Write the structure tokens for this entry.
Amino acid sequence: MFRVNENYGKLQGSYLFSTIARKVAAFTEANPDKKIIRLGIGDVTQPLTDPVIRALHSAVDEMGNAETFHGYAPDLGYAFLRETIAENDFRSRGCNISADEIFVSDGAKCDSGNIQELFAEDSRIAVCDPVYPVYVDSNVMAGRAGNYNPETGRYDRVIYMPCTAENGFAAELPDEVPDIIYLCFPNNPTGCAISLEQLQRFVDYALKNGSVIIYDAAYEAYISEEGIPHSIYEAEGATKCAIEIRSFSKNAGFTGLRLGYTVVPKELKCGDVSLNSMWARRHGTKYNGAPYIVQKAGEACYSPEGKQSIRELVGYYMKNASAILEGLRDMGYTAYGGVNSPYVWLKTPGGMSSWDFFDYLLENANVVGTPGSGFGAAGEGYFRLTAFGTHENSLAALERIRKL
Ligand SMILES: Cc1ncc(COP(=O)(O)O)c(C=O)c1O
């Protein structure tokens, strides 16, 4: 008789966004006349930009011609894209990253879920609390998280680094030394960023203690302030202790197109073992490359025109973020984030629980957000609104909240 991976039984409930979808579906069925505004899931709403669309069309035409047809893509990504990424996202910022340290993929979710495969089964992980759920759940599935304690809302083998209003939502260095530290800045869900000095402290800690950092920079394009690192490799020594994950979803609107990449520096080693070689091997075995047409679309994001179009796209969402942040503060809410990221993290009013506020907002304002507690115990009492809606909807949602 076959047996299943029993670690799956340790996952808590259904994935956060499935629960939200279920609640919204039930509400819509009971109230078919109500028009819901969704500021919950971090999906974009604006179309792909012109330079991207032109690159896609042209790549599609190439695929229809025997001379320019492309079959399987190289597992690790086309050189034209890896070179462009290394130059524009890293070397131009003074980070010494080369094309053969870039691994192109179909997005940051897969990479951030899969990367744990490189590490020993009994590794201890540390995560921010609240946290993007993929880091924890992928380690639960792999058997690293231990048992879930319903009283604390935590897994007993995971080291949590609370991100609270008191510490400016910048995680503090853990007392207990982890093997793997997951960081995401600018952060989902709190929308807060950390300074280069704060990031350097994590890098120094990892180097001193022999930990590896998995740095998710999916929201890098939203950084608007000086002094906020765009890449972990801006911190000294990070190429010896950090892996960085990036996405084309939030900057260029590729959520439906699917493209991302992971940087595994060649200097990152465990003894003699190169993690770059391990990830290359893993990619080669389990992944057959992001589609040619999508990689051409990715390359188009780096032309002068492509960069300008991305600035405009990000600017559109950041206008929403400012409107939401300022609007909520005007109404007397305590709200954070929204300056270097498309997320606003607000304190629920009157000590309401995150899910109670979710229901209250859904029922009375017909606005969908995300309960902070869905991201971890320290998210209780908070609520996330995203700036990824249309500008009209963002303003309309605010008006509805104002009237409550
Ligand atoms: C922190 C973080 N990482 C990764 C992702 C997923 O990105 P992708 O669309 O590239 O899979 C998200 C999506 O919401 C995210 O918030």
Q: What stands out?
A: The chain has twelve helices and 17 strands. The two ends are 57 Å apart (CA to CA). The chain has two domains: 8-47+305-402, 53-301.
